[in-house]
Amino acid sequence: MKPIQMVDLQTQYIHIKDEIDSRIAPVMSTATFVKGPEVELFARNLEAYTGAKHIIPVGNGTDALQIALMALGLKPGDEVITPTFTFIATAEVVALLGLKPVVVDVDWETMNISVEAVRRAITPRTKAIVPVHLFGQCADMEAILTLARENGLYVVEDACQAIGCHYTFTDGTQKQAGTMGEIGCTSFFPSKNLGCYGDGGALFTDSDELAERIKVIANHGMTVRYHHDLIGVNSRLDSIQAAVLNAKLPHLDSYTLARQEAAARYDEAFRDMPCLLVPGRNPQSEHVFHQYTLRLQGLDRAAVQAYLKEAGIPSMVYYPIPLHLQKAYADPRYREGDFPVAERLAACVLSLPMHTCLTDEQMDYIIQNVKQAVAKSAI
After folding, report:
1. In this predicted model, what pLDDT tens digit does every residue of 112-134 receive, in sequence order?
2. SS3 assignment, position 55
3. Which of 250, 270, 300 is where one domain is finished?
4. DSSP 3-state assignment of 66?
5. Within this chain, do residues 215 and 303 fall inside the same structural domain, yes or no?
6. How do residues 4-51 score in pLDDT, each as one tens digit?
7. Which pLDDT band holds residue 377 (cuts at 50, 70, 90)?
8. Residue 89: which of 101, 78, 77, 105 has the closest Cα?
């Protein structure tokens, strides 16, 4: 059996090597490494795939989040609501811009931002909500968008883990992750569901005005060469990464299906084990399983991980410390115990290998060893 990895990018590359190489070769031969035709083509291809009116490729997902908030014209001291159980980048960009991160608790089942927690956190200084579509499943966007409209707030979707995920509104309308708020943001980090071979990201918007501001901000605030009308940054997707993404985008639906099939096998194996809670589902959202994250109950997580490691099975904890307990984000408004669901999740979540190339043999081996680890790790 081939060694098991959390994400097997090498095997994925081998499967589509000719497609990847044939797209990269013209970039190399023409030396169009920055702002080349592959970048523009990728933007158009991703617009067609997602239904977004405008796609603006940038350097990475964190840049996308920062540029989104800059494009909305938020001012220092404006409050931005985001979940406390997420990767640090979501709050990092808020703090870097001098805005005020307001973190809230999450839902136990879906692990996504709690709409009721958002409702309670809104003040006259609140300007935006940044829901995170964590682990590949959309947050409760219909309720969030309604709440935002009622309070005159912007919605910036952090869809870095959920590209290609579909959300269905109660009227039957279906939208993809990142296309529902004023701006959506995604990442093409190699391990993402649609990943390049370096760093990359993009912003989604249906607003012509916002699209133009985003393009200007991402290019040093420049409208005409050496004429800088806005404070900007330097953030762009390079041509080689765009070529990789152009080759991989046609495979995204099949990649999603492979992840969903792997998740279904995990679900079936663990569903009746009270000590292993399988990922909860939002009935309005598809799940594209960027991660497959269990919640351990009555188990020593470190012992489970150690057993799996000894068996050659990697596992990860996403995320061990909520934002409000991170040293860099210490805030007198928050203390341990304020966000019990997030703190409980941080103490019990465990993600298993999840990627597009898991074999039946590997999955059987993982499932068998997880069950054995559970039997040996009860507290």
Report:
1. 999 999 999 999 999 999 999 99
2. strand
3. 250
4. helix
5. no
6. 999 999 999 999 999 999 999 999 999 999 989 999 999 999 999 999
7. confident
8. 101
Domain count, the chain: 2
> What is the domain extent for residue 215?
9-250
Quote the distance between the C-alpha of residue 141 and its chain's center.
15
Does residue 319 sit within a domain?
A: yes
Q: Determine, yes or no, domain membership for 288.
A: yes
In a domain, 1, yes or no: no
- pLDDT, the chain, mean: 97
Q: What is the CA radius of gyration of the chain?
A: 21
Assess contact for 101 and 226: CB atoms under 8 A.
no
Strand order in the sheet with 54-58: 54-58, 201-205, 183-187, 154-158, 126-129, 79-83, 100-104
179 & 66 share domain: yes
330/5 Cα distance (integer angstroms): 35
- Indicate if 258 and 170 belong to the same structural domain: no
- Does the pTM surpass 0.90? The reply is yes
Q: How far apart are CA 359 and CA 253, in angstroms?
A: 18
Q: Are residues 206 and 299 in the same domain?
A: no
Same-domain check for residues 291 and 258: yes
- Is the same domain home to 95 and 213? yes
Residue 302 phi, psi (nearest 5): -60, -40
Averaged pLDDT, 132-145: 98
**Residues 291-324: pLDDT tens digits?**
999 999 999 999 999 999 999 999 999 999 999 9
Torsion of the alpha carbons at 292, 296, 302 and 308, rounded to the nearest 10: -50
Contact 147, 118 (CB under 8 A): yes
We report the CATH number of the domain holding residue 181 as 3.40.640.10
pLDDT digit string, tens, across residues 326-362 = 999 988 999 999 999 999 999 999 999 999 999 999 9
